[in-house]
Amino acid sequence: MLGFARPAMQHKVAAQLISAASLRSLHSSSPSRTMSSMVEGYSPLRLLLIGSPGSGKGTQSARIQENFEVETISSGDLLRKNIMQGTEIGKIAAMEMQNGALVSDKVMVKLIDMELNKIGSEQSWLLDGFPRTMSQAVTLDNTLQAVNQPLNLVIHLNVPEEVILQRIMDRWVHIPSGRVYNMTYNPPKQAGLDDVTGEPLERRLDDNPETFKIRLQKHHELTEPLLDYYRHRGILISLSGNTSDEIYPQIRELLQSRFRPEEVPVTEAPVAEAQI
Ligand code: ATP
Ligand code: MG
After folding, report:
1. Which of 16, 100, 118, 205 lies in disulfide reach of 234, CB 3.0 to 4.6 Å?
2. Sign of the torsion formed by the C-alpha atoms of 123, 79, 67 and 57
C-alpha cells in the first residue's frame, strides 16, 4: 500500500483552529458504512499519536483501544516482535534500536504497509511511532490520499522532559503484546510477570540514560518538524500533562464526539493506574 514512487501530496497549507467541524473528514459517511461505532458524518478515525520517547504513546494507545473500536499499529512494538522472532526485519532493526538510532525509512514503510493492509477501509485505526520522519510522513500521506483515507487527527502528547526520564527508568514491558508497566504507578499484579499472560516482563534494551538521550535528540531533530507539518494541515491537537492519567481524559473527550454514546464506556480505569 505504501510506496516511495507516488507523487508528493499537495497538502493544505491554510492553518486552521481545530474544531469539531474541522475534524469532520471531507470524505464523510456513505450509505454503505458498516462500522456501527462511528457517528454519522464522521469518517473512521485515522489517528496518529506523536510525542517524545516515553511520552506515553503506548499507554494511551492501549486505553483508546480498550474504550473505542480502534485498531492499533505501534512501530516500536512491531519491531520488538520482529527481533524476538528473529525475522529478517528484526535482524536489520536490532542494532539501530539498541543504539537509539532510527530504523531506515524503507524498512519502516514496508513494515507499516503490511499492517495497514490488514485493516478494513471502514475500520478506525491509530498509529503509534510511525511516521517519525518527514519522508515517512509524506510517503504515508501519498498512500492514504490515493485510497481516499487521509489521516484525520494527530494528537501530540506534550509531557515535560524532566518527568520522562524517571518514567523510562521505571518501565517494564511485555514484549509480545507491548503492554507497559511502571514500577511506581502501575506495577504488575505479580512482580516481573505480565498480568494477562503471566509471561515474564523485560526491560527494553534502549531504556537506559545514554540511549534515551540519543532517542530524545533524534526526536527533536527528525520527528518534531512533523508537528508543524500537521499543524498546517489543521489536524494537530497538542495535549499537555505530567502523567498519562492527566492526558487520557482529554483524549477521551476529544474522541467521544466521533463515536456513538453506547460505544463509550460507562466506567473509567481508576485514576491511580497506568501513569506511563
Ligand atoms: P516510547 O515507546 O517510550 O514512546 P520511543 O518512541 O523511542 O519511545 P518506540 O516507538 O518503541 O520508542 O521505538 C523504539 C525504537 O524503534 C526507536 O528508537 C527506533 O530505533 C525504532 N523505530 C520505531 N519506530 C520507528 C520509525 N517510525 N522509524 C524509524 N525507527 C523507528
Ligand atoms: Mg512506545
Report:
1. 16
2. negative
Is the model's pLDDT at 14 over the cut of 80?
Answer: no
Domains of the chain: 9-70+129-136+148-259 (3.40.50.300), 74-123 (no CATH)
The phi and psi torsions of 60 (rounded to 5 degrees) equal -65, -40
**Among candidates 156, 152, 204, which has minimal Cα distance to 44?**
152
Q: How confident is the model at residue 125 (pLDDT cuts 50, 70, 90)?
A: very high
Q: What pLDDT, in 10s, does the model give residues 161-190? A: 988 988 899 999 999 998 999 888 889 999
Q: Which ligand is nearest to the CA of 61?
A: 2
- Nearest CA to 274 out of 199, 205, 158, 173 is that of 173
Task: Look up residue 235 and give its DSSP letter.
Answer: -
DSSP H stretches of helix in the chain: 20-23, 57-67, 75-85, 88-99, 105-116, 134-146, 161-169, 209-218, 225-233, 244-256
3-state secondary structure at position 262? helix
CA dist 128 and 56 (Å) reads 10
Ligand nearest to the CA of 104: 1
Ligand 1: centre distance to CA 276 (Å):
16
Given the DSSP bridges, would you call strands 46-51 and 153-158 parallel, antiparallel or unpaired? parallel
| 57 in contact with ligand 1, CB cutoff 6 A | yes
